[in-house]
Design brief:
alpha+beta, three-stranded antiparallel beta sheet, 21% strand, disordered C terminus
Length: 507
Amino acid sequence: MAIGWLLIRLGQGGQGGVCMRRGYQCIREGEASIYFPEGERHNVFYNPAQCFNRDISIAAARAFYSLRVNRTLSHRKRRNNTAKPTLRILDALSASGLRALRYSLELGSDIIHHVTANDIDPNASRAISENLRRNRIPESRVSISNTDVRHLLNGGEGQRFDVIDLDPYGSAIEFLDSAVQAIEEDGMIMVTCTDSSVLCGRYPETCMGRYASVGLTAPYMHEMALRILLNSISKACGRYRKVSVPLLSLSVDFYVRVFVRIHTSRLAVKRMAAATGLVLQCVRCPYFKVVPMVRGESKYTAGRIEASVCEICGGMQFKMGGPIYTGPLHHREFVQEVLKIASNDTLSQSLATRKRIMGVLSVVLSELNQTVMFYSHPQLASFFKLKVVPKMEVVRGVLRQLGFNVSLSHTCPDSYKTDAPARVLATIFKEWRRRETNGSIPSGTSGNLSREIVFDTSLRYRRQISAYYPSSDERGPQPRAHRPSHGSTAATTRVLAGLEQSRTNTE
């Protein structure tokens, strides 16, 4: 049984399989295969940990096409034209070309009009050309571009696309302006940023330089990273009287990935100003507050930061982060369509990470989409110094009993994403401590609720573990050499070598 498991990990590894063919290393993912000359594997960038990223991008492109066709045909039928529009997709930083190959092969000619695979590296262009030939994809379906993507988008060639996929090594901020100009009306831009340490507040000076914003190191930092990126996309759109509508925003493993629809609207650009805010984080406790930078609906005024006292500890010192996007992170209809595709056995048979996609999207659908950020269960329990920590579902049950909404966040499994004020959460934890341990209550945290708190300890919540904890081979950065991972290829190879030696000795 153990040997079979090891062979499966080596054969699949989250990327579909690895084999050698006539001096080439062949890596199969989805319906596409990419080939590297033996000994030249590292000449072209390929990251097997991004399999989930590529899988959900395939599903998202199909979902976007489905919703766009339905919306477009409703207008075209009035003109007696029922021809379905197909998509022109740009894989802006293609590297090995795997993503462009998968778009062409898995979406098909009924969805794809043309795919452009671009990379500034000549080695990458040669690799893409070889992979196209070996996958028997004609150049009429996938074309190769060897130039700076900014020149391709708004330079001499000036092409326009329905879907633009930006997945660089690091930050995508330098490509946003060009992508916004080259996207078709009601097109979709997919953006990945892998500089999570910058977005999550470890380097505030770098974050300010790249994104004109400051991240905070807090339990909600991964959601804040998404909102910082969405704010940068919104600003890039606003310069051209366009507006970005988030369809799906994910923080996964070591990167953030957002899918946004772009359309032109002067009125919507003005409304986006009211969806921008600053974050005030208390320096002594978990309390935070989001302050809008612009107020109003039809007539707008500058936001104000009024002198306030922390609702939990009574402190008056706050760290300031942002600006961030404070609107909804997801479009429910789009997420439901992607989940429908991932759940379809026929449409999702090429998605190796299908179960994880379904787990993550199920949590996304349950999120309170209008609530900005969340509180952490361990952080609250630590601040109130609880000796007996309540189960999360017990606290969630109390919040619902008091008339508030509460959900998890896909960025953190121990989260309370709720519309309840911070003082309500503080009172719940204080009351639990008083009843269970009869200990003293920290000063400055007193408060009374209009209804009696009832703790139902019989409540249980089955967490969707697959949404939060991928296997070690699906993560990005691996443990250091002196700390081998349980599922690492090196460790597996050593075990198989030992088994082979034992069998030889026995024979």
